[in-house]
TrEMBL record:
Residues 1-181 form the Thioredoxin domain. Belongs to the glutathione peroxidase family. Keywords: Oxidoreductase, Peroxidase. The keyword Oxidoreductase applies. This is Glutathione peroxidase. CDD domains: GSH_Peroxidase (cd00340). One of its GO terms (molecular function) is peroxidase activity. The lineage of its organism: Bacteria, Bacillati, Bacillota, Clostridia, Eubacteriales. InterPro entries: Glutathione_peroxidase, GPX_AS, GPX_CS, Thioredoxin-like_sf, Thioredoxin_domain. The keyword Iron does not apply.
Length: 181
C-alpha cells in the first residue's frame, strides 16, 4: 500500500486519486488559518516555488480539530490562503486528521511515520509540548497528529520517509526534499 491508494477531495470539492502525484516528491501537511504556525504557509509556498519545477508538490489539508483554529468553509480557507500567503500549491477540503473520524490518508501517514516527540531543545517545540501537556494531554497519546502543520515527506514511489512536527519550519525541510528529487 502507498499514498497512491487514497482518494481525496480538492478544496473545490472534486474527488481525485493521489495517484495523480505518482513519481513526485510530496510534502503533506494539515493546516489551519488561525494558528500560531499559520505563517508557515509563506515558507511552504516558497518551498513549493523553489522545487515544483523539479517534481515537488505540497498538499495542504485544513483541519479544525486543534482549538478550532480552522473555522471557515472550504471557500473561506482557499480565499484566506490565496490572499494572505499567495498559496498556489494544491489545497484540499477540510478533514479530520486525528481520532476515530480521521481521514484514512492521515491514519496511514501516522501509522507509517509514528510520533517521535518534540524537540524540547527548541523553544517552540518545548512551548507546544507544554501547551499540550497543560491543555490537551490526550493529544500526546499515540502516534496521531499532535497539532496543525504536521508535515509528512513522501518519496517518488509514494512511501512516507519522514514526519516533521508543527514547530519544524518548512525551509528546514529543504535539504530532505533535495535528497529525494
Amino acid at each position: 500500500m502507498s499514498i497512491y491508494d487514497f482518494k481525496v477531495k480538492t478544496i473545490d470539492g472534486e474527488e481525485i486519486s493521489l495517484e495523480e502525484y505518482k513519481g513526485k516528491v510530496l510534502l503533506i501537511a494539515n493546516t489551519a488559518s488561525k494558528c500560531g504556525f499559520t505563517p508557515q504557509y509563506k515558507d511552504l509556498q516558497k518551498l513549493y516555488e523553489q522545487y515544483n519545477s523539479q517534481g515537488f508538490e505540497i498538499l495542504g489539508f485544513p483541519s479544525n480539530q486543534f482549538a478550532e483554529q480552522e473555522p471557515g468553509s472550504n471557500n473561506e480557507v482557499k480565499t484566506f490562503c490565496e490572499i494572505n500567503y499567495g498559496v498556489k500549491f494544491p489545497m484540499f477540503e477540510k478533514i479530520e486528521v486525528r481520532g476515530e473520524n480521521a481521514h484514512p490518508l492521515f491514519k496511514y501517514l501516522t501509522e507509517k511515520a509514528p510520533f517521535k516527540g518534540f524537540d524540547l531543545e527548541d523553544a517552540t517545540g518545548k512551548f507546544l509540548h507544554t501547551h499540550l501537556v497543560n491543555n490537551f494531554p490526550d493529544y500526546l497519546v499515540g502516534d496521531s497528529i499532535k497539532w496543525n502543520f504536521t508535515k509528512f515527506l513522501i518519496n517518488k514511489e509514494g512511501n512516507v520517509v519522514a514526519r516533521f512536527e508543527s514547530p519544524v519550519e518548512p525551509m528546514d525541510i529543504a535539504p530532505e526534499v533535495e535528497k529525494l528529487l
